[in-house]
Amino acid sequence: MEYTIQKLGNLTGISTRTLRYYDEIDLLKPARKSSAGYRIYSQQEVDKLQHILFYRELGLELEQIKTIVNDSDFDYAEALEEHRKKLIAKRMQLDLLITNVEKTISAKKGESTMADKEKFEGFKQKLVDDNEQQYGSEIRSEYGDELVDQSNAKMLNMSEEQYQEFTRLEQRVLASLADAVKTGDPSSDAAQQTADLHRQWLGFTWPSYSKEAHKGLAEMYVADERFAAYYDKAHPGAAQFLRDAIVIYTQQE
Amino acid sequence: MEYTIQKLGNLTGISTRTLRYYDEIDLLKPARKSSAGYRIYSQQEVDKLQHILFYRELGLELEQIKTIVNDSDFDYAEALEEHRKKLIAKRMQLDLLITNVEKTISAKKGESTMADKEKFEGFKQKLVDDNEQQYGSEIRSEYGDELVDQSNAKMLNMSEEQYQEFTRLEQRVLASLADAVKTGDPSSDAAQQTADLHRQWLGFTWPSYSKEAHKGLAEMYVADERFAAYYDKAHPGAAQFLRDAIVIYTQQE
DNA sequence: GCTTGACCTTGACGCTACGTCAAGGTATAT
DNA sequence: ATATACCTTGACGTAGCGTCAAGGTCAAGC
């Protein structure tokens, strides 16, 4: 079966302009051209187009897609993982935006008592600061821990001390965990202390404590490899160990 | 104080090209031009630029900003609210994208037993369906339940990023609550929106949603002083208010 | 064989918000 | 006078097409 450009367009829901563009950038070339210069596509191109659309659906850039569909021995996995990171970074930026917009809205609505000018100045300053922070972290790496930490701090709207307290506590959890894991016993005092620190740490971000939630989170620590990696950084097997300790901890009392 | 283009650029961190561009599109014109044709900006323009940058920071398009800063009697609130909705819609699209990418990654890793072709076909179909759903729901309303549910589904396998997402959502609940409580009306849109955010937030830690459980938790918010203290931090009486809002929310429909 | 209408071609501008030369004039200090 | 820093306008490039525009081709009906 052969298709003219419009036939193919109707089949796939892609505009003829787009198909011509894909031809132009060497992403998808027709099988041949008719004597009058018409583009003729065959089944192979239909299949290839489906591949292309698949990746386009995932938000990849056409240049990347070109590489993927042309190089048969391309590392899809890595490309996708890379792409995922980019998307997540984007989402974090969006989150920042949304928060700022919401702040602005509520400030505009709520505190008309405040001198408008003054308010504005405050916002301006804040945004400038935000900007610098963001910019700085962008330079550091694509989206390193810093950005995450900073946006967290900002978002949490914690006071600075609180935030430091929070991160300190996190460090203490890690340190304590590294220590406890050496005992090899999740029911040991050291391990149970770690679990308790972990509970306190949770208190910063969760409004309430429940054993079930705590245990649920612990399960996630082993189920999700990214989480696991975070804790295993402290010591190999630490995520598993922490899970066990928390399970015991939540069964207590 | 008067500024040449570069002076102004250094003052505000904006490139001269950008300033020239803003002149070109009539967003920010210099106060006057020197005899040699140099752009001269005065204090007024500095202030206006700050306004512009403020809105730009919020992700508004320059055309919109032009309207806002030129029409003195413009409805900021509505424009911002509109913008917020757009951002949220974008974020949900991003969430879907991320989900799809993750699905693809895990499928590639996990089920290499499946014939590649077959797998692909499935995905294609799935993506098409997703697409239609997405498109459909976008038409139905700005962001219908489907999208919310879909993004919820993803959250159930919480990863590290998702955990951060979770904490951010929590902050949004608080911000929204602080805003809503000022209306004094638990049935107001703002209050109901807060309740809805709260529901979404629950989705992170509860395997399934039920109105009863939701309402039960709300009751606890006033019964237990620790809960109350947490929410009252946002605004005195906020816990009570949130309870009332959730009760109304769960009675809906 | 001619007309009509549907389909095809290439070419080029438009969109967003600038970055980045390029070619040439201006201000200031030495 | 010269070096240097600064200014101007003009124009191309970015991603992924949408949207004319001007003109050639094909099948069908007369």
TrEMBL record, chains A, B:
UniProt keywords (A-Z) are: Activator, DNA-binding, Transcription, Transcription regulation
Where is each HTH merR-type domain found? 1-71
Pfam families per UniProt: MerR_1, TipAS
Q: Name one GO molecular function term.
A: DNA binding
The record's annotation in InterPro entries points to: DNA-bd_dom_put_sf, MerR-type_HTH_dom, MerR_fam, TipA-like_antibiotic-bd, TipAS_dom
Q: Which domain of life is it from?
A: Bacteria
- Where would you find the membrane-spanning parts of this chain? none
Checking PROSITE patterns in the record gives:
HTH_MERR_2
Name it.
Answer: DNA-binding transcriptional MerR regulator
**Species this protein is from:** Planomicrobium stackebrandtii
